Amino acid sequence: MRKIIFATQNKGKIKEVSHLLSSSGIQLISLLDFDDVPNIIENGKTFEENAKIKAKIIFDKYKIPTMSDDSGLSVDQLDGSPGVFSARYAGENATDEENNDKLLCDLKGFPEPHLAKFICSAVYYNGINFITSNGEVKGKLISSPRGKNGFGYDPLFIPNGYNVTSAELDMNEKNKISHRAIAFKKLINLIQTTENI
Questions:
Q1: CATH for 2-195, options being 3.40.50.300, 3.40.50.150, 1.10.287.3240, 3.90.950.10
Q2: Under the phi-then-psi rule, with left for phi > 0, alpha for psi from -120 to 50, and beta for the rest, what region is 91?
Q3: Do the Cβ atoms of 94 and 88 come closer than 8 Å?
Q4: 9-36 confidence digits (pLDDT tens)
Q5: How far apart are CA 108 and CA 79, in angstroms?
Q6: 104 Cβ neighbours under 8 A, 6+ residues apart
Q7: Do the beta carbons of residue 150 and residue 12 sit within 8 Å?
Q8: Does residue 106 have an active-site annotation?
Q9: Whole-model pTM?
Q10: pLDDT digits (tens, 9 = 90+) for 24-78
Q11: One of 70, 76, 79, 154 is an active-site residue; which one?
Q12: Facing residues of 172 across strands?
């Protein structure tokens, strides 16, 4: 099997992407499998730039082909925020709950519906070339969190066509529609084609 590092320590992301890779011929390892993980400063202006920064730093460190992603929430009424700052919207090392609380506070002055979309840019780097793909899912935000299956802003986000939040969907259903699933399904297909896996 082809071994690929997924450049994240986020257990929620690892679980989602591992599920997608279950029959791909790819063995996924993550940064949780290493003790000497470098500090990565995500200072890109776009999700794709941040994903490329992570992939290159991790490949350069371990010399193993690397997948990474950057993703976040874009809210229409907030001019696309939190965007690339989604994970640290309420400050560095903010918890999901703190980020959600700040988002709800920032939306208080706006009428419903709070239209939003999740965006994901997924990247693969083999030391020579980058392969990139993108995914998004549109929906709306609710005023109080629901569900325990997701992470990040999932408990506030109802995807279009559903009446439950992303955090109330089971893994199989979420992986049919999520921004990360869309981006990584495309990326895996591209990797398999170009790397002959």
A1: 3.90.950.10
A2: left
A3: yes
A4: 988 889 889 988 887 888 999 999 999 9
A5: 15
A6: 143, 144, 156
A7: yes
A8: no
A9: 0.89
A10: 888 999 999 999 999 999 899 999 999 999 999 999 999 999 999 999 999 999 9
A11: 70
A12: none
